[in-house]
Amino acid sequence: MIKLSGTLLNVYTSNDFTNKESGEVVRGKNKIQLLLEIPLKNGDTRKELIDLSIPSSKVALYKGKENEIVEVDVATVGKTIFYGV
Fold this sequence. Notes:
This protein is mainly beta. It has one helix and six strands; from the N terminus they run βββββαβ.
């Protein structure tokens, strides 16, 4: 399992949208915004804001924890490059 750790800034639901082919309205996804600190080779850190989609069953795990450091189990989509630090 891969975990990301960062400061939780926001929990929200993205906008609904209409599928252009079928005309069906698709509900927006539940998302969280995490502020990550990425260590650099020179010893400095870079901050990066990321949005992660989460299942609706996990929203309650993060609501009310804004501005706290949280860990999020994540999966990857597509090819990912890993390296040890």
